Amino acid sequence: MQISQPTHNVMDSQRKSFLSFRLLVALVLSGVLVMGYFLLLAIEHGNLAVEGPLLLEMPWGFLSLVDIYTGLGLVSCWIIWRENNLFISLSWVALILVLGNMGTCIYVLKCLRESKGNSSMFFMGEKVT
Fold first, then answer.
1. How many CA atoms within 13 Å lie on the side-chain side of 31?
2. CB 122: neighbour CB atoms within 10 A?
3. Which of 38, 64, 66, 107 is most deeply packed, by most CB within 10 A?
4. Spatial CA neighbour of 78 closest among 103, 60, 53
5. Contact status, residue 27 vs residue 35, Cβ threshold 8 Å
6. How many CB atoms sit inside 10 A of residue 103's CB?
């Protein structure tokens, strides 16, 4: 004799999944907005030609750059693996190398939209089907 699960548990699970998906989208979109704001602020008030060498002279500044580019490298590998078109992959990688994690957030939003809440589709793209 097989006992079936009550349908309200399935509905609760779907509702929680939908809410967590929306929360993730909101968090990533917040990342785009915050990064965009600070990028504009740095462009307006900073001078990379002067501040860049100073940043590289400091151990924590150097470590921060190594950390950022390690993460961008990992995300770039995921994008190249996930996308079926090499030109599209390399375009995203170039965008991420220019925009940093703001570009990563934009790519993640694209993947979230395409996946429609399916985590396998989010991570693997069309390789799922």
1. 17
2. 19
3. 107
4. 103
5. no
6. 22
